[in-house]
Amino acid sequence: MNTISDAMKMSASVANQSSFPLNQWYVAAFSGELTDKPIARKLLNQPVVLLRTGGGQVAALEDRCCHRSLPLSCGTVESGGVRCGYHGLLYAPNGSCIEIPGQERIPAKAKVTSYVVTEKNHIVWIWFGSEEGSAPTHDAPDYPHHDDPKYKFGWGVYHYDAPYQLIHDNLLDLSHLGYVHLKTIGGNARQHMNAEMKVTSEGNMVRVIRLMPGTPPPPTYKAAYPFGDKCDRWQEIEFDVSHLRIWTGAVEPGKDVIDDPDRGGFHMRGFHGITPETETTAHYFWSMASNKHPDMPETIDTVIEQTKYTFDEDRVVIEAQYKNMRQFGEQAAWTDIHVDVGAVRARRIIAKLLESSR
Amino acid sequence: MNTISDAMKMSASVANQSSFPLNQWYVAAFSGELTDKPIARKLLNQPVVLLRTGGGQVAALEDRCCHRSLPLSCGTVESGGVRCGYHGLLYAPNGSCIEIPGQERIPAKAKVTSYVVTEKNHIVWIWFGSEEGSAPTHDAPDYPHHDDPKYKFGWGVYHYDAPYQLIHDNLLDLSHLGYVHLKTIGGNARQHMNAEMKVTSEGNMVRVIRLMPGTPPPPTYKAAYPFGDKCDRWQEIEFDVSHLRIWTGAVEPGKDVIDDPDRGGFHMRGFHGITPETETTAHYFWSMASNKHPDMPETIDTVIEQTKYTFDEDRVVIEAQYKNMRQFGEQAAWTDIHVDVGAVRARRIIAKLLESSR
Amino acid sequence: MNTISDAMKMSASVANQSSFPLNQWYVAAFSGELTDKPIARKLLNQPVVLLRTGGGQVAALEDRCCHRSLPLSCGTVESGGVRCGYHGLLYAPNGSCIEIPGQERIPAKAKVTSYVVTEKNHIVWIWFGSEEGSAPTHDAPDYPHHDDPKYKFGWGVYHYDAPYQLIHDNLLDLSHLGYVHLKTIGGNARQHMNAEMKVTSEGNMVRVIRLMPGTPPPPTYKAAYPFGDKCDRWQEIEFDVSHLRIWTGAVEPGKDVIDDPDRGGFHMRGFHGITPETETTAHYFWSMASNKHPDMPETIDTVIEQTKYTFDEDRVVIEAQYKNMRQFGEQAAWTDIHVDVGAVRARRIIAKLLESSR
Question: Higher-confidence residue: C305 or B285?
Answer without folding.
Answer: B285
